[in-house]
Here is the input.
Amino acid sequence: MTPSVKQSSPAAPQLSLQGAGLGLRRSLLSDLLEQQPDTIDFVEVAPENWINVGGRYGAGFREALQHYPLACHGLSLSIGSPAPLDTDYLQQLKVFFDLHQPVLYSEHLSYCSDDGHLYDLMPIPFTGEAVRYVAARIRQVQDAIERPLVIENVSYYAAPGQEMTELEFLNAVLTEADCQLLLDINNIYVNSINHRYSATEFMHGVPAARVAYFHVAGHYVEAEDLRIDTHAAPVCDPVWELLDQAYAHFGPRPTLLERDFNIPPLDELLAEVGQIRRLQAPYASAA
Here is the structure.
């Protein structure tokens, strides 16, 4: 099951993100360019949504990058898929990255395809075999795009073939692949409710040296014991509280506000970005 890949070369040094960022969607582009808010320190895009985009959106995207550093957070890599990696897609990513020079590139520790795309993020079995398989594919991606790949802990609703805990699996992949982590605070909270564990204990079990940056987002309360990760609502108070704990534990890591559906006016999103900055401030001063 494990592909044969060459050992990754040492990655070139990457600039660090700082402060608070916002996911950049086309519906927000014109308002962002008009206002150019200084509450935003960086923007993040799904690269597959912007590859080969021209016209006014392409021009606006290039203009936005004159004002804000770029992070890329992919949706289609399918790092845990049983199917081979899409080498054509990897080549498109490399061209896009070489052109726009993102500060970093992250993807989900999950899979979303086999013979075709599933249009959802499916859980990878928490097994030793899966650790070795995924780590080898992370190295393969890094060789193809010639830059580091940061992985994200994901929300999940079932754990097929589980041989280890979510935290054990995540840490094993980080160690085996020797890669960094995008720590999604909302996903920790959602999973802690759905799978009945302590969000704080999970977070404290993650090696601080691996954490590159954070995500926060909103979710849907399906039931008292079931949360659905939607990115379609404001961040709730328990997630803000967990983010504050994360800053206390890890320091004021750069943090991205995600909003993918039910997108409000830019001013409402900037208010949430302002909350990120307010939570970061005491820890930045202490640092």
